[in-house]
Amino acid sequence: CKIYRLSLDGREQILYQLSPGEYCNEVSAVDGKLNPASFAAVEASTVWVLTQPALARLRAQYPALNEVIIASLAEHARQLSRRVFQLTFLSVRQRLALFILQHSDENGAIDRHIWSQEEIASYLGTVRDVAGRALRDLRDADLITLERDTLQITNRPALQALTRS
Predict the structure, then answer these.
(1) What order do you get walking across the sheet with 150-153 strand by strand?
(2) Alpha-carbon torsion, ordered 20, 25, 26, 30, to 10 deg
(3) CA–CA separation, 143 and 123 (whole Å)
(4) Fewer beta carbons under 10 A from the terminal one: N or C of the chain?
(5) Mind listing the pLDDT tens digit for each residue in 64-104?
(6) Helix residue ranges per DSSP H, the chain
(7) pLDDT digits 0-9 by tens, 98-139
(8) How many Cβ atoms are within 10 Å of 156's Cβ, its own excluded?
(9) What contacts 58, CB < 8 A, 6 or more positions away?
C-alpha cells in the first residue's frame, strides 16, 4: 500500500510505501481530524480500519499503546524531515540513487512491476520523463541495469557515492 498526496493539478507524491504488517494514519486516529494524506493498495491487501473512538478506548485500556503511537509518530516525523531535505537539496539523480539503494532487495534488485517508472517519479517528486532520464543516466554510467522486469544495481559503491556528493 502507499501513502500519497495529490496536487491540485493531479500530480501524485508518494510519501511512504507500506510493507505487510505496517500501519498508518496515526495522526487522524489520534486527533480525529481529516487525513493529511491518501491511502491506496498497490497489490492485493487486507486492510483493517480502526476508528478514532475505538483507538481512544484502546489507548485508555492499554496505556502502553500511547508509547507505541508516540514512537511511531516520531519516526514518521523523521521520515518526512528526511524527505523534505532530499526534495530540497538533492538533485533528481541523487534522489533516484538513494531510492534505489533504499528500495532494492538483498540482491540489489527492484521489481519494476511494483515500482514502475511512473511510481518512482511520483516517489521522487518529479515527472516520468525526468525520472526516465535519470534512470538512463545511471544506466549509462554503469551503476544499474534496466531490464523489462527488474532494475539491478551493478555498482553499489558508486551509487552510494552519488548520494553523498
Answers:
(1) 109-111, 150-153, 144-146
(2) -150
(3) 20
(4) C
(5) 999 999 999 999 899 889 989 999 999 999 999 999 999 99
(6) 26-31, 52-61, 64-89, 92-103, 117-124, 128-140, 156-164
(7) 999 999 999 999 999 889 999 999 999 999 999 999 999 999
(8) 14
(9) 50, 65
